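Thread amino acids onto this structure.
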């Protein structure tokens, strides 16, 4: 009897936590297709803002730069993590850098 009450409570908490995290994302995606310039006023369904985004060269350059930085940092993390996992004999500087807070 006690286990089913706890299980019900945990399922409810999980559902509420997921709703708290994902409902704002869904609302943001829905409002990204809003035709109106005002966020709170729905002006109809449109993709004109995505078209304007793809025409802006500055934003596209920034997105590509962010993607390149993400790829390089991911590769560096994989290499360093693999070397650390293989118990690579490292200098004290690398050992200290591993312990730094993110």
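Threaded sequence (102 positions):
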């Amino acid at each position: 009897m006690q286990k089913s009450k706890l299980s019900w409570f945990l399922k409810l908490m999980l559902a509420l936590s997921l709703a708290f995290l994902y409902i704002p994302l869904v609302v943001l995606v829905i409002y990204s297709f809003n035709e109106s310039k005002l966020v709170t006023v729905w002006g109809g369904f449109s993709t004109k803002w995505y078209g304007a985004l793809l025409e802006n060269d500055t934003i596209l350059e920034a997105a590509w730069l962010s993607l390149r930085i993400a790829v390089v940092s991911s590769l560096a993390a994989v290499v360093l993590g693999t070397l650390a996992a293989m118990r690579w004999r490292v200098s004290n500087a690398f050992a200290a850098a591993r312990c730094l807070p993110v």
